[in-house]
Write the structure tokens for this entry.
Amino acid sequence: MKLTRYENEMLDGRHSEAKRLAMSGLVQLGEAVDAPDMVEIGYAHVHPGMALYAKDVELMEDLANLGMKMAVPASANVINADLENWQQTGAPEALVRLQARVISVHQRMECGSALSCTPYWAGHWPTWNTHMTSLESGVTIFCNSVLGAKSNRDGFFALYAGATGRYPRFGYHLDENRIGSLLVHVDAPLENTGDFSALGYHVGKIVGSGVPVFTGFSQRPSLDDMDALGATLATAGGVTLFIVPGVTPPYASVGQAFGGRKPKAEITVTIKDLAAIYDSFGDGSETFDMVHLGCPHASYEEMKAYANLLRGRKVHGNVDLWVTTSRAIRDRARDSGFVAAIEETGGKVIADTCPIECHFIRTGSPDPSLGVVPSGIKAMVVDSAKQAKYARDMIFCKTLFTSPEFAVESAVTGRFVRRYGART
């Protein structure tokens, strides 16, 4: 790889051992993918240090002790506990104490914690044409497809990139890779974020790691719609970028989205396709003991919507309702009265974590001393196809997928309300 003088200095250890370690890892990555050089990044969403994984917190502390600091604006992903209100989630205290140690690590690394899978709602908003890096696939696809930033799907390398301000030039950092591969005609009513989530799940299974281009929306999708669509495209497939001409910068037309070439393939999505996704996660005959809203972490507008749907009502006595969001959005929602409106119904507003990343998870490798035991959750109602898949696969419980409005109705009545039924 061709490196600049400063990049060679970092590689030689002339700036710190932490930068040497980080740059060495990035050079190995670059050489593995035949990257010609490095790009300068403007933002990084990095690994937070997870208490449920053996020695992960200690690893982050070791890096901080080596002097690792973020060279660019950075945020950290979700952790394994709500550090402010951990008691209401039933988290073991030993887990919380271990997890709390990473906050000081973030401070030493000069990383804005965020502790969210939607740091953009918390103010981390990389602009068009900004090279960046993220370990969270939902952040990657939102920033690529909504903001016009440039990012690959990264893992721990995001931390190295944040520490150096550099990343190998390959993948979606190259304009020639940022073109469509599948044209998607949407011939179905999309009335809420659940429908966009179902659409993403259906198309993600078809397109794999390609780049879908969407047409046929009856109106311009909202930011929350785009967030829901991207999150499930990245979950059901390996999608890193999707394009909505006229919304995704800089694509003004379908022709531009495909680089002037014809699409490799075309599909049409109907209401029956969306209904099949909803129904694939349960037909409604199952009972449930939990309703979870806010996957990805809810935006301010979603918090407002949930509060208005719940206001003046009560969560059923046999149901545990969680609404998850970032700590920044929870603070704003608290100031606006939305948190109180949710909590007055018996619901819980959780930050920093979510069901699939907290002590409910069964696919981690926790230290037995942390006191993590099986959750006992048998079935969960969700308004996100992403959460429907991950809760099923990582908590080992049944999942029932419906729209946000009907998920709230399910929480209040104690009976699952399907998004689609006989009318389809």
